[in-house]
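Q: What does the assembly look like in three dimensions?
Context provided by user:
Components: two
Sequences:
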Amino acid sequence: RKEVEQDPGPFNVPEGATVAFNCTYSNSASQSFFWYRQDCRKEPKLLMSVYSSGNEDGRFTAQLNRASQYISLLIRDSKLSDSATYLCVVNINSWGKLQFGAGTQVVVTP
Amino acid sequence: DAMVIQNPRYQVTQFGKPVTLSCSQTLNHNVMYWYQQKSSQAPKLLFHYYDKDFNNEADTPDNFQSRRPNTSFCFLDIRSPGLGDAAMYLCATGGGGTPSTDTQYFGPGTRLTVL
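A: Here is the predicted structure of the complete assembly.
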């Protein structure tokens, strides 16, 4: 079993719609969780950290479910510029080693 | 304003010809990481430096080496590149707080082609 698993997609989303997807992780001791965004042939960029209580940043909402060991990302009012691959990232040890999922591709269409 | 800089952005080398990729940072972070990312795959950690302490991942081939002469710079040396080493190489930095909760900041990457 992979340490971080994501649905690769693609999720084809009409502009203005809402899209949500999950990520599951295997290490119950993980303490930090992140969503990174990666555009084609570019570096990953931090989208948001995920806190225990869930958090929102504009149109983006992240949720953490420790009991079921999954993280979710919801994008509201999708924009064309939201088209990217979203990487679920989990800290898996005490010195900050991150385990990346392979990413979920989102394609927002006009 | 660039915080993590990688050079070159694109590198073409021949099979077996050594190549060095460089990374520099202006964040004064004490941790620097090197990742390899192949198409449609997750970034894979090769090794990291915590200050001057080098930490190799167990499955990183001996063909990959690294040097960190000072806080700002870190190098990735590929001694004898094979066709399977063609990938994007990402440098990242972290630090300034508890490592387990630090985020990592990525450079733009170096795309390596092996002919």
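Follow-up: Chain B has no helices and eleven strands.
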